[in-house]
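Problem statement: downstream parser choked on a complex file, so we are re-checking the raw output for the pyridoxal-5'-phosphate run. The parser issue turned out to be on our end (a line-ending mismatch), but while we're here, posting the original submission so the record is complete.
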Amino acid sequence: MLGFQPPAIGDEEIAEVTETLRSGWLTSGPRAAELERRMAEFLEVEHVLALASGTAALHLSLVALGVGPDDEVVTSPITWPATANVIVHTGATPVFVDVRDDDLNIDPELAAAAVTERTKAILPVDLAGQPADLDPLLALGPPVIEDAAHAAESRYRGRKVGAIADATCFSMYATKNIAAGEGGLIATNRADVAQAVQDLRQMRRGDGSVYDIPVPGYKANLSDVLAAIALCQLDKVDRHREIRLRQFALYDEAVAELDGITPLARDERDVHALHLYIVRIDPERAGATRDEYQSALRGENISTSIHFLPVHRLTWYRERLRDQPRLPVAERAGDEILSLPLSPAHSDEDIADVVAALRRVHERFAA
Ligand SMILES: Cc1ncc(COP(=O)(O)O)c(C=O)c1O
């Protein structure tokens, strides 16, 4: 079976983890601090805080910006459920807004229409590595917390994702462009947000036995063992990007010839992080549904995935947000999207195998 997104771990990561274990630092220490310093340089931003997960980064950003009960947060339904779940954890209500048909990122005009006096934050998602359209979202007034879990290398209109929103949240989950296994980062140019997150991620302020509790903390700091992996991945980010670029080019060339199979749009004015290669399968033209394509590809020993099922259709949200308006673009896309294998651990031959399998399946269905 060809894996969907196998990790690209080499001898460097293994050596650095061993070195870290020998150093005696199991919890946050010099490597977590170095990761923050180097990521701030990479993201061209003032502050970076390392955290236990991307979910924690989103959650603590919301708390740091004062989001709580009775507030609303405007967000995208095409995302990993973490984005919405953390809004719920603060006691606020997620307000899902439909996405644009071409890139499946939040539609800024619909976001504007959803803002009320209760809106405490806007939470766009940079799906697959394509930045959301941030300028019109920032112009709406409430702070913007950007879910950049997929967008570690992205630029929006020339500016690095990470240096634009009030808080930008990255994930270092096993499949991400800069992977630690588990881990997250918050990037911000706001000193007040950085200070608040600093307090929230620990259990106390101070060192050793002299400490205080400025705020009840969440204990969401990053271990040095994981920071060591992330530092190696950061060293390889350009090399890995070269591989992703080739894989994207191979897929672009192949799907251009397959009627009814179309990749999500990538805005040429931006830098795309190439995190996921997502296609839409139009059942009319492609001759079968996304689910049929996915299971046929499985039959060809190719693993694929879905990014993402619309969150508002999942049980907890469906049952509680009964007066949620229909989100037709997201709902249709949710039935049509399929993510193809993509990883620096894959060879060009692996991607050629995927392409050959996809062609065979298309030939069978579209005939
Ligand atoms: C869009 C998006 N947001 C948030 C997260 C949460 O990150 P983590 O798994 O590091 O908690 C993920 C993925 O894992 C994601 O894909």
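For whoever reads this later: The chain has a mean pLDDT of 97.
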